[in-house]
């Protein structure tokens, strides 16, 4: 369970019972900020990233996609693609059993094709929901578009 920061949103404290959170869309603006905030509050975060994508750590370092490589304090990267069966994601859900999946992955650009947007935003979300349900993991869906 994600706990609110009792000192307010700007204070940085470690929680006595940190959550394990899988964040999709971690290379995007919302997902990346969510990763940084969760890490700052002491939670263990795994960023689901497509091959070749990167995420910025709290110290500003660029972290490449590397499955299971712990990158920085409490941050791990899991290589995967929500639009297809992904062994790394299934293995992560089975072995790590995150407390929650924060789903922020989406195609939002106007230049993207309708087929790609549908594959990621509809198909990818449906695929993630099915995987999470199969492993008993709740999903928090985050959307700005």
CATH architecture: 3-Layer(aba) Sandwich
* CATH classification class: Alpha Beta
Number of strand elements: 7
Whole-Å distance between the termini? 26 Å
The total tally of domains equals: 1
Describe the model.
With 145 residues, the chain is of the alpha/beta class. The chain has one domain (20-141): Rossmann fold (3-Layer(aba) Sandwich), CATH 3.40.50.720. The protein has three helices and seven strands. It has a five-stranded parallel beta sheet, sandwiched between helices. Helix 1 links the parallel strand 1 and strand 2 (44-49). The protein is globular, with a radius of gyration of 15 Å. Mean pLDDT is 79; it is low at 1-7 and 65-71.
In brief, what are we looking at here?
The protein has 145 residues and is of the alpha/beta class. 30% of the residues lie in helices and 20% in strands. It contains 3 helices and 7 strands, in the order βαββββαβαβ.
């Amino acid at each position: 369970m994600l706990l609110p920061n009792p000192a307010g949103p700007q204070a940085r404290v470690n929680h006595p019972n940190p959550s394990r959170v899988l964040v999709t869309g971690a290379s995007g603006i919302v997902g990346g900020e969510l990763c940084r905030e969760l890490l700052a509050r002491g939670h263990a975060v795994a960023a689901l990233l497509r091959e070749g994508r990167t995420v910025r750590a709290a110290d500003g370092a660029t972290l490449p996609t590397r499955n299971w490589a712990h990158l920085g304090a409490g941050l791990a990267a899991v290589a995967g693609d929500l639009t297809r069966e992904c062994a790394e994601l299934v293995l992560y859900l089975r072995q790590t059993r995150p407390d929650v999946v924060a789903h922020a992955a989406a195609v939002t650009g106007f230049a993207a094709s309708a087929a790609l947007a549908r594959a990621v935003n509809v198909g990818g979300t449906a695929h993630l929901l099915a995987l999470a349900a199969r492993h008993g993991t709740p999903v928090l869906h985050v959307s700005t578009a």
